[in-house]
Amino acid sequence: MKRICVFAGSRRGAMPEYSAAAKALGRELVSRGLGLVYGGGKLGLMGVIADQVLELGGHVTGIIPDSLIIKEQAHQGVSEMHVVTTMHQRKAMMVDLSTGFIALPGGLGTLDETFEILTYNQLGIHDHPCGLLNVEGYYDSLLHFLNHSIDQEFVREAHKSLIIVDADVSQLVDRIASNNS
Question: Which CATH architecture describes the domain 3-175?
């Protein structure tokens, strides 16, 4: 089974559209026979997408550092749970188990995970596609900053194309799948 790793906040955010998008992404993954790999928590958008996939009979793989089992409330109902020692091990296992990545809205952890995966892609460590689900323009300012980084010659224009951005769940998954051979 192909699996998509979804990075998501341990909070639900300020708008109900974020949770709605997490549920829609969960439905899309299940409808395409794709498993979910995620951070293993029950809280926030992480919990929303995991619950949706499980409710629809999909496969959910959680990966959580032992130091976050209580803080992020490790999800007890997932299909499989991997408890690791460090965040680095969590991200490495996410790469090993996944064929693509999608970031829902989230905070510093979501951004850290997303940028590490993009950096691995840039360096040729892997070639898994990585997308941003730009719910209600959540990532617009980040994309503006990346354009600024290109203008200031810190990021190459070609590397911006490593990020697949879409506000539509189905279209984003299509684009991830078409970049995932």
Answer: 3-Layer(aba) Sandwich (3.40)
